[in-house]
Amino acid sequence: MTSAPMSQSSLVALSDPQSAAAEAFRTLRTNIQFAGLDRTLQLLTVTSAGIDEGKSQVAANLAITMAQAEQRVVLVDCDLRRPALHTLFGLSNDTGITTMLLASEGTPAPLQQTSVPGLQLLASGPLPPRPADILGSRRIGEILHALRDVADVIIIDTPPVLAVTDAVVLAPRVDGVILVLRAGHTRREPAKQARSVLEKSKANIVGIVLNDAELNATTDYYG
Ligand SMILES: Nc1ncnc2c1ncn2[C@@H]1O[C@H](COP(=O)(O)OP(=O)(O)OP(=O)(O)O)[C@@H](O)[C@H]1O
Ligand SMILES: [Mg+2]
Which domains does the chain have, with CATH numbers? Predict the structure, then answer.
């Protein structure tokens, strides 16, 4: 299991690659790469205990950081309740993973190229009723599996674990789960509960990210 402190908002890996936060994402990338030596870590979800802890930002920045290392990356918005990735990249949500459910099998995913070379987005698409049922469906499993052929890494954003079952439903279908905690926001009990719910669902928790952490202490340590 790995952990890394994160700070600052938005797509910091793109806008400020020299920052401590961007460096922390590179550390996270390296730790995941090392964790992947033992078992395949191609399909990863990002989740957290509650809302507003930075799941979408961490997913987006990690995806950017992986693309910057010459990997082919697809970022998938499986938050079918509060999708955010298309907004972060200034793209559309008109088509996405939910539109594929209605398309015939074999239809290619409506991937959108982001401003980052090597990074494509599969947005949520129009929001469906009963997202948890949809995320647990065989078809979603097939769609995610098919992405393995077109990307080195697939990073999936999800809703919070303790609010709805969506992330838990997805967890056993992916290679690894990254759990985001937000400094000064995530409380100890919900964090422990989220971890235990994920572990019970046979999730492979490969990383814990401390988002919004005060990085000065770390800087002083190394400085
Ligand atoms: N490290 C940070 N520093 C400052 N603001 C942050 C940081 N991380 C997240 N935020 C802000 O918190 C809000 C939530 O971030 P984000 O959308 O990534 O969280 P989320 O966990 O995906 O939320 P949701 O539960 O709605 O999916 C956003 O307004 C974002 O700008
Ligand atoms: Mg989100």
Answer: 2-222 (3.40.50.300)
